[in-house]
From TrEMBL:
One of its GO terms (molecular function) is metal ion binding. Signal peptide: none annotated. SUPFAM superfamilies: ISP domain. Residues 5-104 form the Rieske domain. It comes from Stenotrophomonas koreensis. This is Benzene 1,2-dioxygenase. Keywords: 2Fe-2S, Dioxygenase, Iron, Iron-sulfur, Metal-binding, Oxidoreductase.
């Protein structure tokens, strides 16, 4: 798969912020995090229960996002679950800066 989903303009995602997008082809929700200038993208879905990670709190000091539903936390760099009730990592997606924009893609096989 070579399609990329436009998330936002580069200027709209500052360090410590997150933005969401939606892959129209795979129907995957995507959340992109700016952690000290580095970009990371995860599927915008808690692995404990189907709920948007982007509704939670992005802690830029520790590089984690916390699901507001039950408090599961994930490392935004690699998606790994940091505490119960989540035990499965969130899916990580490729992300890039190109043409003054931020792009991500669901690279899982169909």
């Amino acid at each position: 798969m070579s399609h990329w989903t436009f998330i936002c303009a580069s200027s709209e995602l500052l360090p410590g912020e997150m933005r969401t997008g939606f892959d129209e082809i795979t129907e995957a929700p995507i959340v992109v995090f700016n952690l000290d200038g580095e970009l990371y993208a995860l599927e915008d879905q808690c692995t404990h229960e189907d709920f948007e990670l982007s509704a939670g709190v992005f802690n830029a000091d520790e590089g984690s996002v916390e699901c507001v539903l039950h408090g599961a936390r994930f490392d935004v760099r690699d998606g790994r679950a940091l505490c119960a009730p989540a035990y499965t990592a969130a899916t990580r997606f490729p992300v890039k800066r190109e043409n003054d924009g931020i792009w991500a893609r669901d690279d899982r096989e169909d």
